[in-house]
Amino acid sequence: KREIKTLEQISTSMAAMPADGQAVPLLAAVRQTRDAATPHTQAVTAMLLAGDKEQAAIRLAGQAMPGLIGNQLAVKALLGHEQKVMNAVIAEAEVTARRARVSVVVIMVLSLAAALLLGIATTRSLTLPLARAAAAARDMSQGKLQGSPLQGGQDEVGDVLRAMQHTRQAVVALKDELDLMTHHHDQGEVSWRADTSNLQGDY
Known about the structure:
The chain has helices at about 1-15, 25-50, 55-140, 155-185. By secondary structure, the protein is mostly helical. Helix 1 crosses helix 3 (about 55-140).
């Protein structure tokens, strides 16, 4: 009796489940086999309650049991379908999770690459102008005063380049004045003095 009641409860719960397209015929089979078996199982239960165990056994074996077995098979078929659906959902979730992990890795790699490129660009924006200033200083120390104008942006590196350009221009102006004074002295004008009014500081 308890087993029959349990099977009826399971069948009723399964019949009340929402169904997708493929589960509709399976769910219909559960309902049909349940409805077909219910009168016989109720009759068997009534006989047992009345104490007529012999007739209950005959009704159970002849009419109720085939319906119960059919209902059990229908429930198993529906459960198997639901398990397949659940497995497909789990597999799709795992694929989505893997894709999400790949996306995170790609984003991290791209971020690191962007940071690296930005660092290289920043380093080059500092080292190249400073290298030009250092080269100009070496040239002046070797008496090479000609070269392309040193220009820079509105930052500390630009200030260094402009200061180096002004120094180069001051040295060139002083050299020109000294050359002119030498020329006058060679002409006997020993009182000629170089004009340093346009120069600043100790020049």
